[in-house]
Amino acid sequence: MTHVPDQLYDLPPSGKLVLKVLDVNGEMTQSQIATETRLSKRTVRYALDALRDAGVLRERIYFRDARQSLYSISDSVLTNEPTSVDD
């Protein structure tokens, strides 16, 4: 059975959906995630904040449009390594 980090159990449903979409599709912008999940941009932003707080989100600049960021799942989650989150 795959180890699921404890902080993922506490994610809201929107956070779990965004996590799954990023797992399947790889790097995406907030707008792309909103389109794919059919969630509002505000809900996606809330989900991304929850994922960031859980320490499972990687964010980098989207060079096609520097106003946006590209989001992906951190390598530690993909390889099932334990992560530490500072409180």
Automatic annotation (TrEMBL):
It holds the Pfam family HTH_24. Gene3D superfamilies: Winged helix-like DNA-binding domain superfamily/Winged helix DNA-binding domain (1.10.10.10). Keywords: DNA-binding. It comes from the Archaea. GO terms for molecular function: DNA binding. This is Winged helix-turn-helix DNA-binding protein. It comes from Natrinema hispanicum.
